[in-house]
Write a structure and sequence with these properties.
It contains 8 helices and 15 strands. By secondary structure, the protein is an alpha+beta fold. It folds into 2 domains: 116 residues, D-amino Acid Aminotransferase, Chain A, domain 1; 156 residues, D-amino Acid Aminotransferase, subunit A, domain 2 (D-amino Acid Aminotransferase, Chain A, domain 2, Alpha-Beta Barrel). 40% of the residues are buried. The structure holds N-(5'-phosphopyridoxyl)-D-alanine (PDD). The site of N-(5'-phosphopyridoxyl)-D-alanine (PDD) has 15 residues, from helix 6 and strand 13.
Length: 278
C-alpha cells in the first residue's frame, strides 16, 4: 500500500519513524478521518477546516494549504484503489529532544494512510442497531480538539466491547457527552437533542450535517446537555460519526440498562444522510 509522509505519497515500509517525534512522546498532534464514497472524499472541506482549528488551538504549524492536502488525499485514494473506505491524516508537532516545553513554529510531521471499508458492514449495524455501554467520561477538558490523546476513548471502547457493545456512551456527572468515537443524539416527543458543541465533545462533521438535515425536515433540534435519565427515557437514540454515519442504538447496558426501538426520526435522518453521499 501507499502512505502519506510529509507531502509525498510513498510505498509503505519505507518511512522512517523518529522515536523523538512529539506525537510518540506526548501524543502531541492531531488527526482527521475522512470517509471515501465512490473514490471521492466526503465533506473534505469541513474536515480540513476542523483540522486547521485543532492545529490552531494547539499552536501546531500548518505546513501545507488546503489544496495540497486535498491533492494528497486524492492521491492516497487513487494509488490505493479505494472505492469505499477512509483516509486518515495525522500531524504531530514534530521532532525534538524530549522536553515537555514545546517551541513554537516547529516543523510538523504529516503522515497518513487509506483503507478500504465494506459498506455492507456499516449497513448491517445501521439496519439492526447497536448495543452501547454506559460509562463515566474520564477524558480531559479539551475534547473539542481532535488530538492524538485518545486513552480515555480507547479505554471506554474496550470496556464497551467487553460487554458485547459496539460503542460506549460517556457521561460526565450524569450529563451525556458523546460516544468513544461518535456523537450521541436522543429523540423525545419528536425533538432531537444532542450535547452542545463545547470543550466537552468533538463537534462531529456528521453531527453538524445531521443537525442541518433535521432542521431542513422541520424536526426541532436542541443542542442542549441532557442527562443519563433523559437517555433512559428517550424514544429513540442514535450515534453519528464519519465511519458509522447515522446508526441506531437499540440497547444500553452498564450501570443502567434500557432497550430502544429504531424510530421514524432516526430512519428519516439515516435516509437523508445516505442521499448526501450519493
Ligand atoms: N471519530 N466524537 C469523537 C470522540 C470522535 O472520535 C468522533 C470521530 C466523533 C464524530 O466525528 P465525525 O462525525 O466528524 O467523524 C465524535 C473518528 C471517526 C475516529 O476517530 O475514527
Amino acid at each position: 500500500s501507499y502512505i502519506l509522509y510529509h507531502d509525498q505519497i510513498i510505498k509503505d515500509g519505507s518511512i522512517p519513524v523518529d522515536p523523538q517525534d512529539r506525537g510518540y512522546l506526548f501524543g502531541d498532534g492531531i488527526y482527521e478521518v475522512v470517509f471515501v464514497y465512490d473514490k471521492k472524499p466526503f465533506a473534505f472541506k469541513e474536515h480540513f477546516a476542523r483540522f486547521e482549528q485543532s492545529a490552531k488551538k494547539l499552536e501546531l504549524t500548518m505546513p501545507y494549504d488546503v489544496s495540497t492536502f486535498k491533492k494528497l488525499t486524492d492521491e492516497l485514494i487513487s494509488k490505493n484503489n479505494i472505492e469505499n473506505g477512509m483516509v486518515y491524516i495525522q500531524m504531530t508537532r514534530g521532532v525534538a529532544p524530549r522536553n515537555h516545553l514545546y517551541e513554537r513554529n516547529m516543523q510538523s510531521v504529516v503522515t497518513g494512510f487509506a483503507k478500504s471499508v465494506s459498506l455492507e458492514n456499516i449497513a448491517e449495524s445501521q439496519a439492526s442497531g447497536i448495543s452501547t455501554y454506559l460509562t463515566e467520561d474520564i477524558r480531559w477538558l479539551r475534547c473539542d480538539i481532535k488530538s492524538l490523546n485518545l486513552l480515555g476513548n480507547v479505554m471506554a471502547k474496550r470496556k464497551a466491547a467487553d460487554f458485547d457493545c459496539q460503542e460506549a456512551i460517556q457521561h460526565r456527572d450524569g450529563t451525556v457527552t458523546e460516544g468513544s468515537s461518535s456523537n450521541v443524539f436522543i429523540v423525545k416527543n419528536g425533538t432531537l437533542k444532542t450535547h452542545p458543541s463545547t470543550n466537552l465533545i468533538l463537534n462531529g462533521i456528521t453531527r453538524q450535517i445531521v443537525i442541518k438535515l433535521a432542521q431542513q425536515n422541520g424536526i426541532s433540534v436542541l443542542e442542549e446537555a441532557f442527562s443519563v435519565d433523559d437517555l433512559l427515557h428517550a424514544d429513540e437514540v442514535f450515534i453519528t460519526s464519519t465511519t458509522m454515519e447515522v446508526t441506531p442504538v437499540t440497547k444500553l447496558v452498564g450501570s443502567e440498562s434500557q432497550s430502544y426501538n429504531i424510530g421514524p426520526v432516526t430512519l428519516k435522518l439515516q435516509d437523508d444522510f445516505k442521499k448526501q453521499i450519493i
